[in-house]
Amino acid sequence: MADAAPNDAMFLVRVALFIPTLLLGCILAVITLATLLVFRRKLLVSHLDRTLLLLLCVVVVWSASTAVRFSFDAFDPAAVGPAYERVDAALSYACSLWLIVANMLLGLSRFFVFRETPESSIRRYTRGIIAVGIVLSVILAAVCFALPQAPNRFGLEYLQAGINKRVVVAMSLVILGTLAFIAWIYLQTYLQISKNLSTAWTSNLDLRIRLLLQKKALKTCAAMSVCTIVAYLPIGIALPVSLTQPNGLRSYPIWVIVVLSEFALLDTVLTPIAVLLFMPRVRSYLRRLLRMNGDEDTSTETDTNDEDDLREGVELTAVS
């Protein structure tokens, strides 16, 4: 990576855009993660909760490590040696991979709940996906150390010949394929829940309440995964398109590279915001954490109120 001079445009981009975005995302993720850990007996009770914990841990590691790297690039590029570049690239690609893995687990968690999959089967599938993630992380690290030159952390620079071009093709397929799979899982689950709601509307009230709660939880998970899809879809499209250009992504104007990078970085900000925005329990306990006092049964009251609101709405609809 070229050294950044203080008057270089990329210096300004890193200092004014990239680093503040990463620091904001890291702070939000740390605050949300601390809330989950401090009140873990209340907030880490389900497969979905533990998946959110994994997602936030990855966001913290990725945002912090990337902020450090961009700080070196901006203020002391000479301090970035070949070994650090390889470790940094491996860590970056691994974090990107685990962001996708965590979002896959979010989608599958709603799918498994709706299908009433046994807990033992859910654990088996989860362990299998995590094992695949670990293997892929090792492979990515090996590739980063095997290449003659450490790949750029966003894949925005690469050599056209040899293994590096094949890596770009593989990255494109993985990104687009995984995002398509996540979208497909959510769509199938949503359509099936909506269909069951329409056929169960005249059935017993408890069944309708359960389906509505599942639909609400599905929307929450989908909103968080949309953040990752929006963040990575531009890069997933730009990478294969760049293969048709003589100089790869270097053929794009610099502002396109900046936009692609910023979209990926925004995932670190949008993910914790989505958790706080769409999960009232976490938001409620965050207020308690900031006050360091409050009632122990806040999350239970919130859950009960949600169900009572849905029950009242269903009853009013049935009467009307």
Question: Care to describe what's here?
Answer:
This protein has 320 residues and is mainly alpha-helical. It is built from ten helices and no strands. Helix 1 packs antiparallel against helix 3 (47-75), helix 1 crosses helix 9 (280-291) and helix 7 (205-242) crosses helix 10 (298-319).
Secondary structure blueprint with pairings:
Layout: H1 9-38, H2 40-43, H3 47-75, H4 82-114, H5 119-146, H6 163-200, H7 205-242, H8 254-278, H9 280-291, H10 298-319
Helix pairs in contact: 1-3, 1-8, 1-9, 3-4, 3-8, 4-5, 4-6, 4-7, 6-7, 7-8, 7-10, 9-10
Comma- or semicolon-separated keywords:
disordered N terminus, mainly alpha, 320 residues, disordered C terminus, globular, 10 helices
